[in-house]
Amino acid sequence: MRSVAFQYHAPRSLDEALVTLAQVAAEDGRIIAGGQSLVPTMAFRFVRPGHLVDINRVAGLDRLHAEASTVPGRTAASELVIGATVRHAAFHRPVLAGPLGPLLTEVASHIAHYPIRMRGTFCGSLAHADPASEWCLVASTLDARLVLRSVRGERILEADEFFTGVMSTAIEPDELLVEARIPIPNPGVRLGFDEFSRRRGDFALAMALVSLECVDGRVRSPRIGVSGVEDRPRRIAEAEALLDGRIPADDLFRAVARAAAAAVDPLEQPQLPAIYRRELVESSVRRALERAWGPTGHGAR
Amino acid sequence: MKHPITLTINGHRHDVEVEPRRTLADVIREECRLTGTHVGCEHGVCGACTVIVDGDPVRACLVFAVQAEGAQIRTVEGLAQGAQLHPLQQAFIDHHALQCGFCTAGFLMLSTALLERPAPPDDVELQEALSSNLCRCTGYKNILLAVRAASKVMHATSEAA
Q1: pTM of this prediction exceeds 0.90
Q2: At what angle do helices A134-141 and A100-108 cross, to 10 degrees?
Q3: What is the pLDDT of residues A57-83, one digit of tens each?
Q4: CATH 3.10.20.30: which residues of chain B?
Q5: pLDDT for A187-199, tens place per residue?
Q6: Which of B18, B45, B49, B67 best probes binding to A when mutated, by most A CB atoms within 10 angstroms?
């Protein structure tokens, strides 16, 4: 099937893009970056935008670098800044030393397939907010901040304010997600990721991301994020509380994984009963914990 | 409203007028009359429409043609040099890597982009990348064998040059 007719705009600067977006926002004007999720939803006519504002030619949106954090009181001294047109493929090789760069490389390998990763963008995945999006889980678990710009000004949202439901975010119709800022974990942090999908490159049915530190043999500052299960990614406080301050062990990881599985409220879909997804959460969280702790995780040993 | 755009395909200039909603795959086939690029699922799953845009393999059904203005596009028609088949095309014949041929153009363009990267892909990378496209008759084994064989030929040639 073909998309409905729309008007196409290709601004060259951010200001021009924001002015255009403000003008067309009321007629379901939308941003297109990589288009790898938007174009199929248009082909199915799930969405029928009246205008597309293509930001691929906007100068400066492809920035990808570490920068000193602008948030006072944040534990991370610096943030990884990911501009709106940075492609998934930018993470095929680690963009940073330390645990975060290799984690992002591993996560990127689970996103769709190679040609999709050549065009699809990190920020586009966040804006699309598919519950099965890997980058949304990363943003949520690692407390990314999302920078929104419009002709009215700038807003910076925390991940838990940004994601509001299935394919829903707090982005206003005239706003553009110009960049995501991920706090760069301390060198001692260990990260582990696990995803379950039926086929390589298919949508995740469950995934988990774990971040933890180990101080004097005990777990400190654990984060356990789960996605692909509920309507949006989130950290599971009950599981984190069970892990915090404890001595890492297989039995503990199993108990934490069970706690995470008990805490989620999985989406019910045909052929995907909630009980099945709940069991996947248990497996995914356990594997992510084992990976964070074990030799295949990312971070200090 | 139609947009006048210029597409450069296999080094040839095509001046066409297109509605923004027409995909690159459709315009390559219907306006530029290059029907070697096949259209399968039309939503980015099958990879039959894979072409090379500015060096990268992309799904031509997930790019609007207006977005490709000014880009260097390569399609399966650009692989052979006259009667001389591209090493990948020859390898696909030698290793029986196609039956019906519907997916072949997509696999060839995906593989071309992979094998033109500076370092030859190892078997894990190759397998991962070839999982991008669907083949429903030959199966992937012979496609993998063909691409591996072509990789040896192409990288031997580039080292000798």
Answers
A1: yes
A2: 160
A3: 999 999 999 999 877 666 668 999 999
A4: 3-78
A5: 889 999 999 999 8
A6: B67
